[in-house]
UniProtKB/TrEMBL annotation:
Its cofactor is pyridoxal 5'-phosphate. Keywords: Cytoplasm, Isomerase, Porphyrin biosynthesis, Pyridoxal phosphate. This is Glutamate-1-semialdehyde 2,1-aminomutase. PANTHER family: GLUTAMATE-1-SEMIALDEHYDE 2,1-AMINOMUTASE, GLUTAMATE-1-SEMIALDEHYDE 2,1-AMINOMUTASE 1, CHLOROPLASTIC-RELATED.
């Protein structure tokens, strides 16, 4: 039964563009009608019609502990009794900043209210520090919706029906070509292409911004050679911005930077750092961060930046991860078993898939592997993925509603959810196989 969700969707479309407040929620790339979620607990979502779904989105990453984790709730509740917003400094900002700097090695951090604000501000900072205007990003990487980053972008932009056709053009209408022209684009995991671009244009670049592990073209894992060329850019005075909005505090306590031994100059965060409330942040050495106002000339502000409830949710989440380090092992083990089970079930049904997994992030591409680049990812059979997605949803499993997204496992997933998921997957593979033969 999905009547209430359908009714809500119809009503929503009258008053909200497309009925949603962020495009990937609308199921456009898989078809059908999105579920409206009434509540969530642990590893489950309950939709408006009362259907219980195993949640592999985790609010697109933040819910690493599962929904309504007791310590996170207690932390928010304690902040709530003291007032919801002050527009003045509060102790929780200091506490979270101390935790983030300790975990990540960055000396200073500035809190904002979203991942988009974090990457936008990090780029402004990099341009100010270097005195250069151009930046480089990678095809299919997504860094939020600031104008200069909506160029060959991943996530919802990869399945956007109204996508502009011209290459190197903005991925969204409304972005001035002149501004988008300051964003150069290279292919992720193409070390030769990157090296050539650095030879040609390196001395004009303020920064290279990158997803250290891509989640927004589906999961793509960087090769050692690609990382080496990225690091070599520092010799040309280019600042490396690791966009850890998705990977931060997920792939290890110190994020992908720690896990992969990266040496970024600036890191951006979002998602987990806010424990499900709106928080983003960027951090770097004191020397770089002191360019930011009021210390330095780079203006960046926010009415709700460092909001006490949001800080409390972030503190509660990071404290829980710090005090229970075994969580990382547990969610990785679960995701590895999920990977093995999916590969087996697909093989048994005679369907070609390639599973990319690192830690608790995973994408199953409906194509033969390996999938290392954007071009590999877009070979996927998105029609087959859409069928499989709906078969899973009908069996109570809420997978990410796009081929080009990661799923996220939380500490609340358990043996029961794994068994249910793998049974659903096996049966969904067999169903779509028989549909394709019929
Ligand atoms: C890697 C990455 N950077 C930036 C963003 C933007 O974050 P937000 O949606 O909080 O603006 C996202 C997700 O949306 C992301 O996955
Ligand atoms: N892939 C996006 C961010 O990680 C999904 C979240 C969104 O844009 O709504």
């Amino acid at each position: 039964m999905t009547e209430k969700s359908r009714w809500l969707y119809e009503t929503a479309q009258r008053v909200i563009p497309g009925g949603v407040n962020s495009p990937v929620r609308a199921f456009k790339s898989v078809g059908g009608s999105p579920r409206f979620i009434q509540s969530a607990f642990g590893a489950y979502l309950i939709d408006a019609d009362g259907n219980r779904l195993i949640d592999y989105i985790g609010s697109w990453g933040p819910m690493i502990l599962g929904h309504q984790h007791s310590h996170v709730l207690a932390s928010i509740q304690s902040a709530l009794t003291e007032g919801v917003s002050f527009g003045a400094p509060n102790a929780r900002e200091v506490e979270l900043a101390m935790m983030v700097t300790k975990l990540t090695g960055m000396e200073k951090v500035r809190f904002v209210s979203s991942g988009t604000e974090a990457t936008m501000s990090a780029l402004r900072l990099a341009r100010a520090v270097t005195g250069r205007d151009y930046i480089l990003k990678f095809r299919g990487n997504y860094h939020g919706h600031a104008d200069g980053l909506l160029v060959e972008a991943g996530s919802g932009l990869m399945t956007n029906e109204q996508k502009l056709q011209a290459r190197s053009a903005p991925s969204s209408a409304g972005v001035p070509q002149a501004y988008a022209g300051l964003t150069l684009v290279a292919d992720y995991n193409d070390p030769e292409g990157l090296a050539q671009l650095l030879r040609d244009r390196g001395n004009t670049l303020a920064a290279i911004i990158f997803e250290p592990v891509v989640g927004n073209a589906g999961v793509l894992i960087p090769t050692a050679e690609f990382i080496d060329v990225l690091h070599s850019a520092k010799e040309q005075g280019i600042l490396l911005i690791a966009d850890e909005v998705m990977t931060g505090f997920r792939l290890s306590p110190g994020g992908a930077t720690e896990r992969l031994g990266l040496k970024p100059d600036i890191i951006t965060w979002g998602k987990i750092i806010g424990g499900g409330l709106p928080v983003g942040a960027y951090g770097a050495s004191a020397e770089i961060m002191d360019f930011v106002s009021p210390m330095g000339p780079v203006y960046q502000a926010g009415t709700l930046s460092g909001n006490p409830l949001a800080m409390a949710a972030g503190i509660g989440t990071l404290q829980t991860l710090r005090d229970n380090p075994e969580i990382y092992e547990k969610i990785e083990d679960y995701t590895e078993r999920l990977e093995q089970g999916l590969l087996l079930a697909a093989a048994q049904a005679g369907i070609s898939v390639c599973v990319n997994r690192i830690g608790s992030m995973l994408t199953m591409f409906f194509t033969e592997g390996p999938v290392q680049t954007y071009q590999d990812a877009v070979r996927s059979d998105t029609r087959l993925f859409a069928q499989w997605f709906h078969e899973m949803l009908n069996r109570g499993v809420y997978w990410a509603p796009s081929q080009f997204e990661s799923i996220f496992v939380s500490a609340a997933h358990n043996e029961r959810t794994l068994e249910h998921t793998l049974q659903a997957a096996a049966s969904a593979f067999l169903t779509i196989k028989s549909q394709s033969q019929g």
